[in-house]
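User: I'm new to structure prediction. If I give you an amino acid sequence, what do you actually give back? Let's try with this one:
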Amino acid sequence: MKKTINFKMLLIAVFTIIYASATAQQSTEIKKYDPGFRLGFGLNGGIPTNKVYSWSLGGDVRLQYDLSMKTSLTLTTGFTNLFVNKQDLKDIGFIPAKAGFKAFIWEDQFYVLGEVGAGFAVTNGYNDTTFLWAPGIGYANKYIDISVRYEDYTKFDTNQIALRLAYGFKL
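Assistant: Good question. You get back a string of structure tokens that encode the predicted 3D arrangement of the chain. For your 171 residues, that looks like this:
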């Protein structure tokens, strides 16, 4: 009988130690994460997929709110210029306004991103607003964000594959 009581006490002690250790580890992990805002400034270059535009260049500002260690909401704006191939057409410059969702899928640094919004044409007499959507993939660490995206402009009859190089920091 004494061996049974000692064995039960040993099992209770082992489970208590395991539970306390797991609880302490979880609370430590939660304390390490600090949700909040990040701000990033990026340069963008792209290659349109149609023959009217030859290349694009732009800059952006992205505000990101980290919901968790793996997910974030984004707001992006800036300026992008699509340069034309033909002499009889004019380049088009526009201001994008996009909202998005970023999910880190590997090692808390590699992510997928989806953005939707509008592009407001502001140069060379263009006065159109286009719907735009942009899925992408990227890598981000504490300060650097590098991504590739496909971006579609419905009213401008084009889309592009673009590279973004950005510097970001916590606010």
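You can read the tokens as a compact description of the fold. Here is one thing that stands out. The first helix runs from residue 2 to 32.
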